[in-house]
Amino acid sequence: MDPKRGKSLTQEQEGKHVSSFPDEVLERVLLSIKSHKDRSSVSLVCKDWFNAERWSRTRVFIGNCYSVSPEILIRRFPNIKSVTLKGKPRFSDFNLVPPNWGADIHSWLTAFASAYPFLEELRLKRMTIRDDSLEFLAQKFVNFRALSLVSCDGFSTEGLAAIATYCRNLTELDIQENGIEDLGGSWLNCFPDYFTSLEVLNFANLSSEVNFDALERLVARCKSLKVLKVNKNVSLEQSQRLLLRGPQLIELGTGSFSQEFTLRQYAELETAFNNCRKLHTLSGLWEVTSMYLPALYPACANLTFLNLSYACLQSAELAKLLPNCPHLQRLWVLDTVEDKGLEAVGSSCPLLEELRVFPADPFDQDAAFGGGGGVTEEGFVAVSRGCPKLRYTLYFCRQMTNAAVETVARNCPNFTHFRLCIMNPCEPDYTTNQPMDEAFGAVVKICTKLQRLAVSGLLTDKTFEYIGKYAKNLETLSLAFAGNSDRGMQYVLEGCPKLRKLEIRDCPFGNAALLSGLERYESMRSLWMSACNVTMSACSLLAREMPRLNVEVIREDENDDNQAEKVYVYRSIAGRRRDAPNFVLTL
Questions:
Q1: Residues 302-316: pLDDT tens digits?
Q2: Which of 83, 222, 504, 512 has the most CB atoms at less than 10 Å from its CB?
Q3: Which secondary-structure segment (H or E) carries 550?
Q4: Burial of 229 (0-12, 13-18, 19+ CB in 10 A)
């Protein structure tokens, strides 16, 4: 029974039809379904199931904050307690979306305050959230428990102070890669002395020194703390003290890993890590000093995720560390490990499923022009030989070959995410000087489960012909500086039935390519095109033909009235957005 409605969940208001399932059975079925996609599918079975799913839904995921309005969401799901919301297009990570573009959370919060007063979780990505919004959130939702902000902007540590002060039941504060104004570490003082509920605390990307005494007291009080990730201003000696206070941690992000230690201090550090046998995730290690790495070894026995993307390790250091991580499934490293380090990955990590290799210095001109350093195709192949379970890769390099990528695909045919980033645009196979078409052709032919693909290097329309012909499960495609003509984009739109996101920059695709997707865009989440050959007239035609799409053009250059420099197309049941700035033209 639903107390708000005074009747069973599976009964329509008119009482015309009752599900063949008893209410208790249907409710149990729905409670066991965690996937947003699966719950949406359940709601389509019949009207009774639709109503049951509507009233029992407590969590919602919205992949584009402009695809629906707060009012529509509230009418559809009246009992939501957890909201995950994404805002700006992903290319905002590369400064392609101007400041003040939108995606402000405040209008959502004001609507939630009356409709969802018992909201417990808010998870935002690429949204703008101001300090006054954080204070509103902290004061209006008495049961609020979890805040996660990833790649968000608009706020400062004063907003975090409001969360710490007023959210008395807080279990999670996760602040990742945000454009935050860091006004100092005093916000940690705002947690009340009686506060003990915290389970997740991540402030790794803040830049200022924190009040360590306040942090240490907080960690000591919160006996259920499982995740702690601090910033680089926390010293190695302070990290050791935190470990003594929190031996129950399962995820740890250390601060700086470089400090002058006596033998006694090193022994204490080793003991502290030895007591943390429950760790399955380790990150941080800022400014790591190799002489202290062995202190980590006892804590690595159960690691499944090792994030070294802030640690400039050399190949020999990585080769000594990895044998202590026999259960490793996810590994992030910088390209300072070079190919020798990746050979150690291949020989030490047979269970590895995800590898990300980031550039330590993406603007290194010496490396860009063949000066050595970084990773190459040899390291990529070495990993694939030893890690047959690999299914996710993000690999930054400066040179690659068709043969190497084909070998990687054959060694690891279960890839679902393949993102190869050759950092020099339009770089051919350096051994043959041929385009990289056959490399990505091999990936889409062999890796039939592929869902996300990012391509790079010198590419012709042949690559996109391969993608359209073979990538039948592809959902997200990102490309730049690729293709010859409109036909390349047309191959993708015609051939990839599950495509949901298409991200394009600096490609020769024009009006014919854009308009070839008229029948596809309503089934997709979004299309982004920037620095292509698209005109305002084609965008206007698209908007007229497909009125349920929002077709937005970002106009930063007033010199060319007909050129559409940046185009963002997305489906929406809320109509055109009401907060578009002057430089965003909605057609």
A1: 999 999 999 999 999
A2: 504
A3: strand 549-554
A4: buried
Closest CA to 147 of 200, 192, 107: 200
Is residue 144 within 8 Å of residue 137, measured between CB atoms? yes
pLDDT for residue 51: 72
Instruction: Say how far apart CA 504 and CA 518 lie, in whole Å.
Output: 17
| Whole-number Å distance between alpha carbons of 384 and 575 | 47
Share of the chain above pLDDT 70, in %: 93
Q: What 8-state DSSP symbol labels residue 209?
A: P
What is the CB neighbour count within 10 angstroms for residue 319? 18
Q: Which two tokens stand for residue 543?
A: 């908007």
Helix boundaries (H) for 188-314: 212-221, 236-245, 263-274
Distance (Å, whole) CA 298 – CA 269: 11
Q: How far is CA 325 from CA 212, 251, 258, 349, in A?
A: 30, 15, 22, 8
DSSP notation for 150-173: ES-EEEEHHHHHHHHHH-TT--EE
Q: What is the DSSP letter of 557?
A: -
3-state SS track over 419-480: EEEECCCCCCCCCCCCCCHHHHHHHHHHCCCCCEEECCCCCCHHHHHHHHHHCCCCCEEEEE
Which is it for the CA torsion 473, 476, 480, 483, positive or negative?
positive
Residues facing residue 496 across a β-bridge: none
The whole-number average pLDDT for the span 254-261 is: 90
Distances (CA, A) of 47 to 3, 29, 50, 60, 75: 20, 16, 5, 20, 16
Going by their DSSP bridges, the two strands 566-571 and 549-554 should be labelled as: antiparallel
Which of 329, 376, 385 is closest to 357 using CA atoms?
A: 376
Return the H-helix or E-strand segment holding 488. Answer: helix 486-495
In terms of phi and psi (left: phi > 0; alpha: psi -120 to 50; beta: otherwise), the region of 433 is left
List phi, psi (to 5°) of 255: -90, -140
Who has greater pLDDT, 247 or 5? Answer: 247
Cβ burial, residue 325 (10 Å; 0-12/13-18/19+): buried
Residue 129: CB partners within 8 Å, gap ≥ 6?
A: 104, 105, 106, 149, 152, 153, 154, 155, 159
CB 255, CB 233: distance < 8 Å: yes
111, two tokens: 């609507």
Q: Are 69 and 574 in contact (CB under 8 A)?
A: yes
Distance (Å, whole) CA 556 – CA 584: 9
Helices and strands: H and E segment counts in the chain: 20, 23
Give yes or no for a contact between 324 and 339, defined as CB atoms under 8 angstroms apart: no
Burial of 182 (0-12, 13-18, 19+ CB in 10 A): middle
For CA atoms 288, 292, 294, 297, give the dihedral sign: negative
